[in-house]
Amino acid sequence: MKKLSYILLISALAASSCKKDNYDGPTAGLSGNFFDVATKALVEQDIIRGTQIEIQEKGYVVPQYLIVKNDGTYSNTLLFAATYTVKPIRTNFIALEAQEVTLNGQTTLDFNVTPYIRVTNASIVKSGTKVIATFKLQQNVINNVNKIGLYAHEDFRVGEPMRQAETERDLNAVSDPNATYTLEMDIPTKDQLKTGKSYYFRIGARIDIGEARFNYAPTVKIDL
């Protein structure tokens, strides 16, 4: 009899655990763009270890994180309707204050930001067995530029954390706004790059501020 009672109890618990819950699913979303406040261009990012958006629902301790895409846009269409504290973190632009956003359906939230560095007058061309990048730097903060780089990958999301080949230079100084910087990548010395294939190349520069991420010029596709 005890054995039968035990079996009936287990069966009841299993049946109750399989019942459908009454909570509504996620019906809201948050998307938008990061615009350069001066040029109105999208502020490009890294898809790996790039800028994220921390969102924390009121009443919950653990935040969520939205990934910002390479082109400076973001989107998450599966959030719960609620009020959130929203703040971009680990950025490549001057920090923004957190703000409260109430999500009811799909909501657009754009950010107008000042990049730490603008990579301007960028040119990336193939010349013989080399890929040559030339560019200027416009700083918007007084900190040193600690590194500049030319990065290559067969994926368009190329960047400093996602590269098959690179040419980098440590500056560790305030950049000269009148100087034209040059970085060269010698293709025969880069084992990961194969002639006859196409690759994406991207110029980046990083400011010397805490967890600052790289600032970029747009990618250029080149056939080797």
Task: Please provide a written account of the structure.
The protein is mainly beta and 224 residues long. The longest helix has 16 residues, at 2-17. The protein has 2 domains: 28-113, Immunoglobulin-like; 117-223, Immunoglobulin-like (Sandwich). Strand 14 and strand 15 form a beta hairpin. The chain contains 1 helix and 16 strands. Strands 11, 12, 14, 15 and 16 form a 5-stranded antiparallel sheet that branches. Strands 1, 4, 7 and 8 form a 4-stranded mixed sheet that branches. A 4-stranded antiparallel sheet has the order 3-2-5-6, with no helix packed on it.
Lay out the secondary structure.
Blueprint: H1 2-17, E1 28-36, E2 52-57, E3 64-67, E4 73-79, E5 82-89, E6 99-103, E7 106-108, E8 111-113, E9 117-127, E10 130-139, E11 145-153, E12 165-173, E13 181-186, E14 198-207, E15 215-216, E16 220-223
Parallel strand pairs: 1-7, 1-8
Antiparallel strand pairs: 1-4, 2-3, 2-5, 5-6, 9-10, 10-13, 11-12, 11-14, 14-15, 14-16
